[in-house]
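Exam review. A common question shows you a sequence with its structure tokens and asks you to describe the fold in words. Practice with the pair below. Do the first one on your own.
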Amino acid sequence: MQTEFEISTRGQGLYEFTREVTGWTAGRGDGLLTLFVRHTSCSLLIQENADPDVQSDLRAYFQRLVPPTTDPAMAYLVHTHEGPDDMPAHIKAAMMPVSLSIPVSQGRPVLGTWQGVYLFEHRDRPHLRSVAACFTP
């Protein structure tokens, strides 16, 4: 069983889509859910969904870790023709997961109390992102 989730982003940040995932797995029994983002400048994460400060801090940390190409520390980068956020977005995506495996029990993803499923957008401008999903009983 397969589907695709489309996630509209408004720029850099974490976009939770746990509710959509849970809705799709409902009634499917026990198995394994695999998610795979079909882009090279965003990532997938399982992260805390109770305190929005966690998301802000993660975004700020990765912004400091990999600044835009306009930062003098990034002058060594060659791939800059798609904007100052593009190559840093590829670097962040290379450092973070682009796929997730989540156990499913009685049709519900086995997530912790405060865990949610997120797409982490690394580009500045809005995008429509596709996440492929596969459920294996």
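Now try the second one, then compare your answer with the model answer below.
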Amino acid sequence: MSVHERRSDSEITERKLLQSTVEVARHVFASAAASVFLVDQGTGELVFEAVSGEGEQHLVGTRFPAGTGIAGWVAASGQPMIADEVAAVPQFAHDAAESTGYVPRSIMAAPVIRQESCIGVLEVLDRSATWRGDLADVDLLALLAAQAAYGLELLLRLRRAEAALPAPGGDDVHVLLQRISDRVPRGGGAADPTALKLLAVAEELLH
């Protein structure tokens, strides 16, 4: 099995963990949908990483600008939010919701925290009207968000590891050495001094 195949298998495993979390959340709250966003650490964007229910066929990978909607507020504040009537909540972004193909009436959202930083958001849309009490809902949502944290952390570690590995056929050290070596003329011609220095340093590091 190639390195690429092993990495693909690993990502499938992490995604299954995230997907199981949103499926459990949707079942527990008898909701229309549940999703996990990842906060892109480079841009601050919110990225759908797992969706169950409404939008699950097309939303994974969709991005929203930092601070968008209730999920954006939760990501920025690190605090959960329950909005039983989203129309009455200023943080709700109607246009963003409309772009997903589903505009909810209610939203529960909790930050996904790892090492004291918010790395994502767990959202539940249109939970059932069965009365459980807001505190119980918040506590249960927080437990599910903690589960999502493990999935997102594993996915982030995997992606960081992938970024650190040379791409197949990419500019790894051997390709670099070949390029330097190509600058050293054959047949006794004058060599490029910089190329000779690079070759000498590279050989010293590799031995």
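Model answer, second protein: The two ends are 29 Å apart (CA to CA). Residues 48 and 59 are 6 Å apart (CA to CA). Full marks require stating both points clearly.
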